[in-house]
Each structure stands twice: as C-alpha cells, then as structure tokens.
Amino acid sequence: MSFTAPIQLPGLALDPRWYRRAVFYEVMVRSFVDSNADGSGDLAGLVSKLDYLQWLGIDALWIPPFFNSPLKDGGYDVADYRTILPEFGTLEEFKDLVTKAHERNMRIVIDFPLNHTSDQHEWFQQSREDPDGPFGDFYVWSDTDERYPNIRIIFTDTEESNWAFDPVRRQFFFHRFFSHQPDLNFENTAVQEAIFDVVRFWLDLGVDGFRLDAIPYLFESEEGNGEGEPPTHEFVKRLRSMVDRDYPGRVMIAEANQWPREVAAFFGTEDEPECHMAFDFPVMPRIFYSLRSQQANELVRVLSETTDIPDGAGWGVFLRNHDELTLEMVSEEYRQAMYGWYAYDPRMRANIGIRRRLAPLLDNSRAELELAHALLFALPGSPFLYYGDEIGMGDNIWLPDRDSSRTPMQWTPDRNAGFSDADPGKLFLPIVQSLVYNFTQTNVESQLAQSGSLLHWIRNVIHVRKAHPTFGLGTIRVLKTNHESVLVFTRSYAGSGSMFGDQPETVMCVFSFSHNPVAFTIEDVDMAGTRLYDLFGGAVFPSFNEEGALTLTLGAQSFYWLHCG
Ligand SMILES: OC[C@H]1O[C@H](O[C@H]2O[C@H](CO)[C@@H](O)[C@H](O)[C@H]2O)[C@H](O)[C@@H](O)[C@@H]1O
Ligand SMILES: [Ca+2]
Description:
With 565 residues, this protein is an alpha/beta fold. It is 26% helix and 18% strand.
C-alpha cells in the first residue's frame, strides 16, 4: 500500500494553538504494526504507517504508555518513566518517530499516568523496603485501611478496597486503580518535583504534549471524594505554567471522567490556566443514548449548557478509546437503558461501562457509523479517533478486561491481517476472526480498494472538516426544532486575526436520530433569510424564510452540514 504525500513544506506548522484544529488518532503501539515478527507491535512499525495516517488526515497521535512496564494494565502500570519497554523499541526509535511525524506536520502526544506507578517501579520497591529512606514517603502509606472512606472504587470488577496490605513494609498502601498500582503521594513535594523532571525529560525529546491520565485523583482528602481536590488543581496550574514558560506550543490534555462542571474546572481560568484540552466525557455517552432512544433532548441539554471555557482551551471529543465506554457519568436510569441496548450479554460489560468497539456497538450499521462520526467531527472541540475504528474493526469479548478492543490492527486479508509476520500463535492478542468483522473482509487494503468504504468516507469527512476552520475554532449555538429526534446547531467563526487568513463562516449542522425519515421545522429569528448550501457537494438548499423558519426532511439516522450564506 503506498500513499501519495500531499504537497506541503516538511516540518511543523508554527501555530501555538494547533490543537484546536487538529484531528487526533489514538494508537496503541502494541496493537498497530509488528516490525520484527516477535508478535508485538512496536515503534518502528508505527513509523512505517505514518504515511497512511497522513493520508487519512491525522494531525496528532495520542500514544498510550510505552514505558517499561509489567503490562498488567496495558502499560498504565509504569515501572520506569524514562525507558521504553524493550519489545516496543528504543529511545532512538522513539526520537525517530518524533522526527518523522514532525516532518509530516504531525504531532506526538504521549500518555502520562502520573497518579500511580506499577508496584515494580524502583520508587515503590525502595519505599516499601526503607520507610525512612529518600522514597519512604513517595506513596500513600497507612496503618489502617479505613482512611478516605468517601473515595469510590473505580475498578469495581476486581477491587474491593482502595487499600492493599504490603507484607514487606507491614502497612497498607492506597491505590485508586488495581492493587498493583500504588498511588504516588503528591503531598510530598519530592514526588511533585520527580514528576516535573519526567515531564521535562519527554518535552526535551520533542513530544508535543501529554494526556494526563486519571488527573482528578492526585490528592486524597479525608472530607471530600478525592476527585479534583484543590491541591490537585494547584499542582496542574504549576505544571501548566512551567510548560507554557519553557515549552510553548506543547499541550496538556486532562483525562477527567467527571460531571461537566468538574471536567471544565481542569481548564482553569484565563488568569490561572490548567489544561489546554479536556476530554468531553459528558457528551460521549449521550451520543450513544441518542442513537438508540431516537431522542435528541439529552444532547440538546448538555450542549446548550456547555460551560464557557477559557480562550484557547478546547474539548477533546471522542466516541471510543482503549477503555470501556464508561457509564459513570450518566444517571442510573440511563445506564440501565444503555446496558440493555449495547451490553445485552454480561460479557460485554467492564466495571461501570461497556468493553466493546464502535462498529459492534452500532451493530455495524453504516448509517449509524456515519451519523456518529458526523457528530464527532462537528461538535465543539477536536475529534479523537481510536485506531481501527476508521475501518469499522470488530472486537473480541472473549478476551479479558479491555483487551476486547485492543486487538491487532487489520491491514490486509493476509496472515495475521498484515499486522505481523510472526507465527499466529505468538501474537500478543489474536486477530479478530468473528463472522461479521473477520479480518479477511475488514481491513485497510480492502477498504482502500472500494471507493464507497467507511475508510474513504471518514477520510473525506476529515478533509471537509479541515477545509472549514469553524469546526475547530467556532462557537456553538443550538437551534430550536419541532422534532424530538432532531439536533440542530450552528458553528460560527469570525475568521479574524488568524494566521491562516481564514474567512468568517457559519455552518449549520443538522442530525436526525430517528430510525425513520422525518420532516421538521427549525425556527430561529436570527437565521431569517439565511441561504444554505451543502458542504459536501455544494447543492443549494431551501432558505430560511423572513420569519426565520425552515422546513427540511432527513432520511433515517442521517445528517446535513450546511454552509450559511
Ligand atoms: O491507570 C489506570 C487507568 O487509568 C485510566 O483510567 C481511566 O479509565 C477508567 C476505565 O478503564 C476510568 O473509569 C477512569 O475514570 C479513568 O481515569 C486509563 O485510561 C486506563 O486505561 C487505566 O487502566
Ligand atoms: Ca515487534
């Protein structure tokens, strides 16, 4: 497979707010390409596919942890923050990845699990063996397992307590996630400095930013629930100020699985900024709810309420990622409805969520996949794709935990789906061979050969989005309709002051979640007389009348993106 590089000067475009317009792609090194036939994906393999990612229109990669690790939590159990897991490659290969990505104007954002380490980390080993030594206070130790009673358990499938007894130190240590992932003690300023040093280490190597994993949980609290406690925000502010001062143009992305106001708090304020971006956990499950309930009201509500965020900050919008589709931030009623629709087999559930990939969740419905992506690319913020979702990859719910959706990327219909030349039994996870999503049908090569494939459709939408800066930079306004299944909003961008010389533009985005065709009326006095043109083909649409009303029709589960003239 060869990809023609678009004409552009090599190197990174100098835009300090690049992340506002970027299309991100989450790629797990282990799952993408195996360059040396040892059964595991690696950095050299990822480098070999940069042309593909550039062809797709990807501006930035988010790479989950690739540090030394026992891999008991997909690498989120870090044993050494400064070295790379040998099966993934070397530091030299990582530098090569950064250089080659930058040559293609593609940024590299790495994942940074800073709340905890693996129990195999040298800091923990020293902490448990020498309580009075330099690392004695690096973790949260206690003589009882009864402190912090208000702090919830996140990994409800495996953990019964946030405390585990260490037989070496003969004390309990606190762990927010698995019991092999002791939480670092952020009350200790030496821990804070050690984390700053790690951040500088990777920024000096040229990375363009960090996804700050599990960021709400840094500081515990006796009274509160230990999520977004004030000292956690103070720490993030200090980190931001160092990054802005010493490494301008690099980004911090908050992974805060919380209610809207709490997530938005991780942007900080204009005067005291925290993260440049935060994942939009409030919106994500509501997209899936709307698709099945055929009701737009939950999305209308959450989008109408969208909290103001500081200038320059941006949401990270996503449909799926390497974790379960989390249902922690929806009401019990909605959660049960979502389990009924999307996880009817208990095997599909993990913790408080659903461990399935996008295509199987949507029953491989092309209409739903297009509708979901049209929303992803039109909502305020920058879209994050999950590797393989661009070809509608399936999952394997017989694999444990979240491995169900971390199987090897399907490149070709050949052995090991073109992921690896290893003996098939040697692969770190088996290739998906299910009836519907079998790699012989679902793979990049086959989809490249079909102009109407999902892959070509997604690439086209990405390029249309990129031609209209309002999707990345514009404001949102939700418009009223008389149909419960229809969501309408405008994205407006004044166009001034941009180094790209962008024109002002308003785009109206219309989505129907109904499983049948619909006719509906939009009423908005400010739109009176507005003329509309389809953004994809340029077709002229009916205009808003002088009272600001417009009647349109839409097919089942479909959408329009309309330029407002
Ligand atoms: O390092 C532990 C975990 O950290 C992230 O966790 C997030 O995922 C959880 C669900 O899997 C979610 O419930 C929690 O709120 C998040 O912080 C990371 O993405 C996980 O892969 C990792 O296991
Ligand atoms: Ca390999």
